[in-house]
Specification:
181 residues, alpha/beta, Rossmann fold, six-stranded mixed β-sheet, 9 strands, 30% strand, binds inosinic acid, binds magnesium ion
Length: 181
Amino acid sequence: MVDPDPRLLGRKVARIAFDEPTIAARVKELGDEITNAYPDGNLLVLGLLKGSFIFLSDLVRQIVRPLQVDFLVAASYGESMVSSGNVRLLYDPETTLEGKDILLVEDIIDSGRTLSVLMDLLAVRQPKSLAICALLHKRIATHLRYDARFIGFDAPHEFLVGYGLDHAEDFRHLPYIASLE
Ligand code: IMP
Ligand code: MG
């Protein structure tokens, strides 16, 4: 059990899966990997909202290259804890993707459905390159038709919240990642 955290409003998390220093250290390493992978920079980093908002803001500050940031908004789960496979795009990046190096940043890969659908949508816009960076990967994705190039952590097969991840919109602001009881 975790000490009572006033952020939780009396609700309980089962355990902390990744604490703040662990996340910060890994995000720094990911930033180094991405910096080295794009020597020329000029990346377009596309954050998938809302789940990636904290990860993305920490990550881009560790990428030591020229880059631009935009967002995608997709809806998939609703309030359920199970992926529906119904992925809808609610906001599209303003910038053209053609000829650009795109890094799609996602919070967590579960079934892989969300990313597969989004990658299909982005690929037809003929970017120069298209790569995935996910903070967490449950390694059970049966629907992911693309390679996830940059991964933060292998995730336990539990429902995780915090550091951007939600359950029914709660818990996104936790500075750590916890599994929900
Ligand atoms: P997928 O399409 O099944 O890969 O699910 C990916 C999306 O589902 C992520 O962008 C998350 O928003 C959500 N998701 C999957 N697993 C979790 C979890 O453990 N906690 C919170 N959200 C999750
Ligand atoms: Mg979500």
